[in-house]
Each structure stands twice: as C-alpha cells, then as structure tokens.
Specification:
This protein is of the alpha+beta class. It has helices at residues 2-18, 29-38, 82-87, 96-105, 145-154; strands at 44-49, 56-60, 64-68, 74-79, 111-117, 120-125, 129-134, 139-144.
C-alpha cells in the first residue's frame, strides 16, 4: 500500500511539473531579442514547449510561427496567415550572404518558410521555389514546386 501511495504521489508531482504555464518570460533572451529585432511591435500570442522540452514554439500576432531551440536560436519560421504571406518573412532573419543570392536569383520574391537543417537552410519562396542554401550563401539545391505539382496532377 505504501508503494501505491508513493507512486501516486510521484505521478501527481510529475503532472504538476509538466503542467507549468509557459509564458513569454519563459523564452530565452536570445529568442526575445530575435523577435524584437526582426518583428518590432509584435505581440506574442502563444508560447509552448516544443517536442517535450526540446525548445519553444511561439506564435505572434503578425501571423508567424517560430520554433526555437532551447538556447533561443531559431530552428524554423513559418507564415500562418495570408496577410503575413503578402509581406513574407523579413530577410533580416537570415545572413546577408543568403539574402544576396536570393535577391540575385529570385528578385522580388517573398520568403514564406525557413528551416535550419544541419548547417544549411531550407527556404521556400512565394510557395513556388524550394531552395537549400548553405550558411555561406551557396545554393545546394533548388526545386520549382509548381512544376512538381503539375507533374503529379498530369499523371
């Protein structure tokens, strides 16, 4: 009987630990600074733990969703509404070398999704092009998503 009570007590304690409310104040300073620098005037709508404490998932009122590592470095930035899609993700979120290659190869395009993958970045432009770019601004691969979608519908 003692063991059952002990197990119940441990279970209740563990549930209360995982039920902690996550707020903007829970974010690492690096994540807060990133949001304030690149999305000034934003209001954070939700903050949640990502993958059982492997980082943070944040939505802001400008229509963007972020996934941050535990350190506060961003892992993924996505657009979640049409208004944000017309503006795109600010180019200030990525290194100047990547901005230069995007501006040269795809002028006037809007970034609609970015994800860090190892030492490279997967960048979606206007939901039409998918690029893999190194941190040094070298294009590793590029796909035209419109052509892939046409090929699928024609088969």
């Amino acid at each position: 009987m003692k063991y059952i009570k002990l197990l119940l007590l441990i279970l209740i304690f563990n549930i209360s630990i995982y039920a902690q409310s996550i707020t903007e104040n829970s974010l690492p300073l690096r994540a807060k600074n990133f949001l304030n620098l690149n999305f000034p005037g934003n209001n954070i709508e939700t903050v949640a733990l990502y993958q059982n404490g492997g980082g943070y998932e944040v939505d802001i009122d400008f229509g963007y969703k972020f996934i941050f590592y535990e350190t506060g470095l961003w892992k993924k930035i996505s657009i979640i509404n049409d208004e944000a899609k017309t503006n795109g993700i600010p180019r200030s979120c990525i290194h100047k070398s990547m901005v230069n290659i995007i501006d040269n190869e795809y002028p006037a395009s809007k970034i609609t999704d970015i994800e860090r993958k190892d030492k490279n970045f997967i960048i979606k432009l206007d939901d039409k092009y998918l690029l893999e770019i190194s941190g040094y601004g070298i294009i590793i691969s590029q796909k035209n998503l419109d052509q892939e979608n046409e090929a699928v519908t024609n088969n």
